Amino acid sequence: MSIETKPANLVAQLRELDTFKDLPAEALEWLIDKSDYHIYKKGSYIFEPDQTVDHMQIILEGEYTIEIDRNGTRREMGVWGKGNIAGVLPFSRMTHSRAYGMPLEDTHVLELHRDYFVEMVNVSYDMVQALVAVMSTRIRDFSQIRYQDEKLLALGKLSAGLAHELNNPASAMVRSSEELYRGVHATPDKFKNVITMRITPEQTDRVNEILFSKLGNVQGVELSLMEKEEVRDDLMDWLEDHEVNDADQIAETYLDFGITVDDLDDICDIIEGKSVGPIMAWIESTLNLERLVAEIQEAAGRISGLIKAIKSYSHMDRASTMENLNVHEGIISTLIILKHKIKNKNIQLVKEFMPDLPQVCAIAGNLNQVWTNLIDNAIDAMEPGGTLTIRTAVERSHVCVYITDTGSGISEEDQSRIFDPFFSTKPMGEGTGMGLDIVKKIMDRHMGEIKIVESRPGKTTFRVCFALS
Length: 469
Fold this sequence. Notes:
The protein is 50% helix and 19% strand.
């Protein structure tokens, strides 16, 4: 980028900006003298990710947009124009840019190298104060954006997992209800065949006795693959020998409920060999309807359990006040919410919960934010097939929770910065750097403690401790 000739009216332009309007002319003239003047064309970059930042950039004319890369997709953070001050500022620790600055039109920028910041203190302390105020506002605004990003990122992850978990039982209910509908509509024909049979009430009771003894096997019976094949073949042979229609379908249902050839012989003896086909079809229909109703009940129970877990996780029916809590409840709710992610990576979950763990005084929703961030980070840190261990214990006068993953570990250098805002060990766009900062603030608010007790390749353990209630 070439250096342009400075316009003659730069002092007047600076006076139009809120940051510099009350500064003396000598200070502005010093700033202009030590700065370079650039014009960034539309389509170029004022700054880019990982670019060394060593200039303060005062936007005098034009507009530019700031975009960050999130999982390979650019996300616009906003549009800035005349009066905005980008780049490094006095007392700022910024070293590299993490975003793209793209001019929307030709953008005129006055740039001062950071080497002049020390001299600036002697030239105009008022200018330093004004620029520090700009930095404070920038940090506040950026923090709000990143906190919002963190919330949306967490919400997106949880929503995706819940959608998957709810979809499975919901789909099962749809399939079972459709099959139940077809079964119920086929019942009149089967009932017609049964009602035309001439069997006594005593015979009916004895057949029902065998039938109802098998209804308890609605979840299936435990047989090896070889045993199943053997029983299926025997059932098929018996049904075909007795000229029963749809023998393969009936045999499959009988196999699921544990009906054997001996049971069929008993039924045949009870009805004296008469109307075997209609009786077998009726029994199969009754068992199949029982299975479908059980599947619908189980799926509805799973959905109800998930909704209960969501209510427990979000505490939507409880006030955000300190109360005595069992930390196990929040951890279990969080694991249910993150179940989809755990299953997707084939993570082995080990829970070593201390029986009768004392309660802690905390805000339930805040604690769930702690568990969500730590468990989600642990899952992200591991390759498929890793192990997540959650252990609870009482140590002296504290309730402690240990969360251990088998990931690649955190370097000693990163451990000292892991709770800093905006710091992330994840690739660009995959983390906001606010998750553990939020966790640390929550723990401070609860007068608790969080620390890394061990981190090496293959094992990282975070410890969270709360004073006993």
